[in-house]
Amino acid sequence: MKKFLRLLFLSFLSISSILCLTHLLFSIFFSQIHKRFKSDVSNQKADIVFFGSSRTANHIIPAVFDSISSTRSINMGVPGSMPIDINAQFKLYLKSNSAPKLIFLQIDHTEDSLQPSQLLIPQFSKYLENPELFNYRQNLSKKLIYIPLYKNIRFSLISWREILKTVFRNNSPINRCSGFSPIESKRHPNPFIKSPNYLIDSRRLNPYIQEIISICQTRKISIYLFTAPYFNLENPANFDNFKKYKVPYLNFSGSEFDNLKFSNRDHLNQSGARRLSIQLAQEYKSLKLIK
Fold first, then answer.
1. 69 near 15, Cβ under 8 Å?
2. CA 162, 167, 173, 174 torsion: positive or negative?
3. Which of 110, 129, 132, 253 has the fewest Cβ atoms within 10 angstroms?
């Protein structure tokens, strides 16, 4: 009996040690990914803020935009974001920073998604008690919130992937002042292959995008929607359906950037990001978006 109890105790001790070590490792990872995802940005006084997914984070260079527009901007794009994630990021930004005069919100073929990105759930899990993220919390399993270590187990594959990417330095560096995260790749898309023919519903509105627009209107923040370029897009006019949100919309989806400006069909490289930033700044100046 004593041997059994001793074995039971040692087994419990071993499992507890492994779980604690795993928790510590993933906690270190989550603190790193938290920095990468910009949720801790505070005390900013930007005139213009860019929100969106990697198609914002990797595409807009605030320093280039500001040099033309004579404004101060920051890029709050977060890779992997779906509309509900962008909604959460937007609310956290307003809670910890001065309200900007204008926001640019990049929307694209993921506009119809109502679920959070699995890559971003670990980031926002530390804010789940924040009333600002009530809608976000409602979409999550209660196990994620209340069961210890469940988060680490549930997202272990993502955690290990990101840890390895960090070790081998494959994560895009982030300029902590501007938020820009360049894609450093020598690959380019095949010039003879077209991007998919994305279909955009002309009527159904995403409630999380609608809420961002509503908050902006209430707080007197100007808002522009825009779609960043795709390579060799089959029918760019489909994205004009985003005018359904009844706010100004800029469609760059079919911009004639050659394949050397892209790292893949959906993402520009740093050269392409510079060109888009210039185009957007020129559009801003010509339209005088801030009065």
1. no
2. positive
3. 129
Pair 249, 242: CB distance under 8 Å: yes
Provide Rg for the chain, Cα atoms. Answer: 21
Q: What is the pLDDT of residues 201-217, one digit of tens each?
A: 888 999 999 999 999 99
Total Cβ atoms within 10 A of residue 215: 17
What are the strands, taking DSSP E only, across the chain? 48-51, 73-75, 102-106, 222-227, 249-251
Residue (of 214, 221, 243, 233) closest to 107 by Cα position: 243
Amino acid symbol at 105: L
Identify the three-state secondary structure at position 162: helix
Rounded to whole angstroms, the Cα distance separating 163 from 169 reads 10
Please compute the mean of the pLDDT values over residues 53-69 and round it to a whole number: 93
Report whether 179 contacts 63 (CB < 8 A): no
Return the SS3 of 268.
strand
32-55 pLDDT, tens digit each: 555 555 556 667 789 999 999 999
List, in order of start, the domains of the chain with CATH numbers: 38-116+176-287 (3.40.50.1110)
Name residues whose C-beta falls within 8 Å of residue 42's C-beta, 6 or more positions apart in sequence.
Answer: 96, 97
CA angle 85, 249, 64 (to 5 degrees): 80
Contact, 136 vs 124, CB < 8 A?
yes
CA distance linking residue 236 with residue 284, whole number of Å: 21
- Of 183, 28, 53, nearest to 110 (Cα)? 53
Does residue 149 come out as left (phi exceeding 0), alpha (psi in the -120 to 50 range) or beta?
Answer: left
Q: How far is CA 86 from CA 40, 56, 69, in A?
A: 15, 11, 25
First to last CA, the chain: 81
